[in-house]
Structure formats: C-alpha cells, structure tokens
Amino acid sequence: MEGFSGNWRNMLRAADRANLKIRMRDDGKGVSTHLSAYEAFRQQKKFVGPPSGLIQAMSDNGRKEDIITLTAGTPQQIVAGVLFVCHGNSATYYTSWNTDEGRNSRAHNLLLWQALQELRGHGIRWLDLGGLNTESAAGIARFKIGLGGEIVTLSGTYL
User: What mean pLDDT value characterizes the chain?
Assistant: First the structure.
C-alpha cells in the first residue's frame, strides 16, 4: 500500500468503512454474472470495451482459473465488479462495472486492493491496468495512476 497515492489510500479507507462484502471467483462461474452487469454498464455509459462474447469464449475455451472475477456488494445488491485475465505470471485488468452506490462507496478501490492479494496468491507478479486516456477518461486514468505503478508506453499492434 506504500506505493499508492494518498488520495487512493483515503478512498480505500472510505471503501473499507462501507462494509462491502467482496467475493472472488476463479472457477468460471462468476463470468456470466459479471458480463451481464458489464454489458448493461457499457450500454448505459456508451463506451467501447471488449465484447462480452469474446470474454465468454475465453472463459468457455480456456482454463477456468485464468479468468478471475471479484464483486463488491451490500446485503441488498452487488454494486461493482472487476474481471482479470491471467496469462503466465501476469494478469490484465480486463473489464469492470459500477453502480452509483458502488462509485459512491469507492468499491473499485476495495476491489483492486483485494484483487492484488488474490492475484499474488495465484502466482501473478505483473498486473497490466490497461491504457490511460487522460482526455476523455481522466478519472479512470487518475484511479490507475493512484495505484503507483509504472507507466509504460509500448508500440501498437496493427492488423
């Protein structure tokens, strides 16, 4: 936690006070629930992200333990979720979704903190948080930067 920005640590403490229950799945059974909420979130926010069909196919045709989902919830409802794809000793923060309650309770801070612990337990040593878009997604970029990781620019792959 020492590499996190002060603001990120404060948001994590706020999330901890919200008493959210975190559930981790690495058996493939959390994927369809995650994808349903992710698709609704994607349509509501009108953003382009990895298609659910691709993620479902990866889950159906790969090793179940390579797709890890975490959800945060209250006794009444699940308020946020994240999905990671593991590959070797690395993982990619692939998709996520949030409700207004999840956003207000800072659920993603708690999900990422718990994910770091779970991924380490799965032998993961590197986590790719994905691209940083400081123009149209500045809040998400700040969230990722707040984790204190190294920003790396790689050349693109073009087909």
Answer: 88
**Cβ burial, residue 62 (10 Å; 0-12/13-18/19+):** middle
Listed residue (64, 66, 71, 98) closest to 84, CA to CA = 66
* pTM of the predicted model as reported, rounded to 2 decimal places: 0.88
**Pairing mode of beta strands 21-25, 67-73:** antiparallel
Domains, the chain: 6-145 (3.40.630.30)
pLDDT at 116: 92
Strand partners, 84: 68, 93
Contacts of 153 by beta carbon, 8 Å cutoff, 6+ apart: none
Spatial separation of the C-alpha atoms in residues 90 and 86, rounded to whole Å? 6
Residue 16, class by beta-carbon neighbours within 10 Å (0-12 exposed, 13-18 middle, 19+ buried)? Answer: middle
Contact between 98 and 80 under an 8 Å Cβ cutoff? The reply is: yes
How many CA atoms are closer than 13 Å to the CA of 109, on its beta-carbon side? Answer: 27
